[in-house]
Amino acid sequence: MKRVALGLLIGAAVVYLLTMRLDHSGVWGFVNTAAEAAMVGGLADWFAVTALFRHPLGIPIPHTAIIPRKKDDLATSLQDFFAENFLTEDVVRGRIADAGLASKFGAWLSDPAHANRVVTEATRITRAALGRVKDDDVRSVATGSIVPRLLREPISPTLGRLLDRVVSDGSHRGAVDLLINLSGRWLLANPERFSSLVGDKAPRWAPRLVNDKVGKWSYQQAVDWLVEVRNAPDHAARKALDDLLLRVAGDLQRDSSVQRRTEALKERLLQHPAVADAAVSLWQGLRSSIDGAMDDHGSTLWTRAEDALARLGGSLASDPATQSRVNSTIADAASWAVGQYGRELSTVISHTIKSWDGQQASKKIELHVGRDLQFIRINGTIVGALAGLAIHTVSFLFA
Asked: How crowded is residue 392: how many other Cβ atoms within 10 Å of its Cβ?
């Protein structure tokens, strides 16, 4: 387009030169005047366009090379324009409301292939994230952050309140039942061992027959007692255990001596070298379990994730109430982000432009505007020729 504009200007100059010595009283006067005015218009617009981006012919004429000189001001103006007209809460809310993101995403997610794709991508990202966490990192976090924090925080009141709540709610009864069942199974599987344990505590001078009978009687009493405790939810032993646990919970919250002993035990446990090894082992086991579940596409993790995504997609696609809530949540989040960080986001524009070299910025903007700049020169040449022709015509008529 630069060549076209330049060719048009050269053509006007050639016509002007060829008609300059011809008879101007007739038609050649009109042609010569039009060519002369076309050159003036073309040159004027060439100067105007060029002055925006560089010095014409390299001559530092005042008020030329505007963009290289005003690059930083232009960057700030673009930043302000973008922030004030695009990164506003009203604009963002309006665009999100018009977009209907929830229903579109729900329809997309309802496709089983898309749900599988989401799970696959999430699995890939999770595996990559897990792979970047090294055992030394886990050890460092455990010993450098978690353990010191636990050492600083008193644990006794928290344990006391937790134990009190567990006992008051009866949440421990399952654990008590499990302990009773395990004890009963051990007794039923080891009667001779129980009898021998009782016999070891008997006096050496007692007859062996008596010791055997005492051992068997004690064994049967223990079994019967466990059966009674298991079958009676309000057994005295259960109540005694509840009272004991509640007293322990109270002492943990209010008894300074119990608290000191508990904190001392906590410090001994946390400062033991095996704590870091236990944290690493726990992490390795968790990572191995997650990796195994992610590798098996028929695992519970995969099937539940795909089912959950399919249900979510169906709800988003068909339930207006869910769509409204999700769209409102997205709009709120986007509006908050724009309100908090919109100005900072818009600074990307100014920082980027300000980091450019002046000539580089000028070239980028000139190339972006492109052909329209050269049409200004072309139009200037044509309009100049028409204006010159009109003025010559008026002059001719008056003459």
From this structure: 19
